[in-house]
Specification:
Blueprint: H1 2-21, H2 23-43, E1 52-58, H3 63-74, E2 78-83, H4 87-95, E3 101-105, H5 109-114, E4 122-125, H6 130-158, H7 183-217, H8 230-259, H9 268-288, H10 298-313, H11 325-332, H12 335-349, H13 357-383
Parallel strand pairs: 1-2, 1-3
Antiparallel strand pairs: 3-4
Helix pairs in contact: 1-8, 2-7, 2-8, 7-8, 7-9, 7-10, 7-12, 8-9, 8-13, 9-12, 9-13, 12-13
């Protein structure tokens, strides 16, 4: 046991020195997680799209149609860019990017409204950008509900029935976790967790690839490696990476949401304790898949290839309950999947660590699984000969 602890301490010290002396690893351990959240947050500010240009084709030309257009122009999301004589002209404006949507009011709109029938207004939207479409559709839906209420009130007043004498139903929307309905407040908290996982994996794979490069140069021996059991090496290295990432995680998960006024109502102790097994699991995952880094530069290919896949598997952009069993199980093997869901619940919705015990325990299970995999991978790497650089 003393020898094992001593080997662990030696592995920790050696890995610590290699990290601080490797400019590339320091870049991905510190600069990347420090800079990426700022860049993403600045790109998505302001969080909501405003005054999107919309063309109008008004074949009715009545007081009701003009009032509807004025109300649409008064919304935060829509700005009427002009009246088109026909849908063909409006389509040409859309192709020229003068507008991103078209409001078409048919000639019989006022007649139907006057007879108490359902008036139809058609809305054509550009689906090229989901955020733009969502904003315009939300504005049109709220405008339609307000117009319907005004028409009903007007009809009751004309019939001599006071509007206060009839029952009415009003709805109030409370957007939990994202009160501003901003895109950055929705996606950035999850992206922050994914940045931590990917950056630590990138640094670990670069270090393992560098070790293989040194073995090629020195006849299959890494002069900077330590002697001892594979488990001691894995534990020492993992402790080293975790120590480096604790202050980084504090900055990314606590101060970045504070800087940009993102939803941030969770307690720091809850999400900091929650993220600890994610850092350990990510470091172990990087060591477990070290066979993918045949050389130092291979780390870029592995991490870049998996980043988008891990984003979708986390359920941040597509709900996990809508995935088939294959993708669901693959997502369960990724630490960021549990980390994203648990951190968003704590940070955005004020959950506690006790309420996130499923995600929390799942991360510790992945720690155990990837520890075994990392030890096996390290043992295999020690036994596997490496071809020299110059044969």
């Amino acid at each position: 046991m003393k020898k094992w602890i001593y080997a662990t301490a030696i592995a920790f010290r050696r890995e610590f020195r290699m990290v601080i002396r490797d400019v590339g690893v320091m870049l991905f351990f510190f600069v990347l997680p420090l800079g990426y959240p700022l860049v993403y947050s600045l790109i998505y500010n302001p969080e909501v799209t405003e005054d999107l240009p919309v063309a109008v084709v008004d074949e009715c030309r009545s007081a009701h149609s003009r009032e509807f257009v004025r109300h649409a122009d008064a919304t935060q999301a829509i700005k009427i860019c002009g009246y088109a004589s026909s849908l063909s002209e409006a389509k040409r404006w859309w192709e020229e990017k003068k507008c991103f949507a078209v409001i078409y009011i048919p000639a019989d709109y006022s007649q139907k409204v006057g007879r108490g029938e359902q008036g139809l207004i058609q809305f054509y939207s550009d689906m090229g950008l989901l955020l733009r479409y969502r904003t315009m559709l939300s504005a049109m839906t709220e405008l339609q509900m307000a117009t319907d209420t005004d028409l009903r009130t007007e009809a009751m007043n004309m019939a001599g029935i006071p509007s206060s004498a009839t029952a009415s139903v009003q709805t109030q929307a409370f957007f939990l976790g994202d009160p501003q309905q901003g895109f950055a407040s929705f996606i950035l908290p999850g992206i922050l967790v994914l940045i931590l996982q990917q950056s630590i994996m990138l640094g670990v794979l670069m270090l393992r690839g560098s070790s293989k490069d040194r073995r090629r140069l020195h006849g299959g021996i890494d002069p900077l490696d330590t002697e001892g059991p594979a488990s001691a090496k894995v534990v020492g290295r993992t402790l080293c990476y975790t120590v480096f990432y604790l202050p980084t995680a504090l900055y990314v998960l606590h101060f970045v949401p504070e800087f940009f006024a993102f939803p941030h109502i969770g307690h720091i102790a809850d999400y900091f304790l929650f993220i600890l097994p994610l850092l350990i699991a990510s470091a172990l995952l990087g060591q477990a898949v070290q066979f993918l880094a045949s050389e130092r530069e291979s780390a870029f290919i592995v991490v870049v290839f998996t980043s988008v896949a891990f984003l979708f598997l986390s359920g941040l952009t597509w709900p996990r309950y809508a995935m088939n069993q294959l993708w669901l199980w693959l997502g369960n093997l990724v630490p960021a999947t549990w980390g994203v869901n648990g951190f968003v619940a704590i940070n955005n919705n004020g959950s506690t660590l006790a309420l996130q015990q499923t995600n929390y325990l799942a991360l510790w299970v992945l720690v155990a699984v990837y520890f075994v995999c990392a030890v096996l991978a390290e043992s295999h790497a020690e036994r596997t000969p490496v071809k020299p650089l110059y044969a």
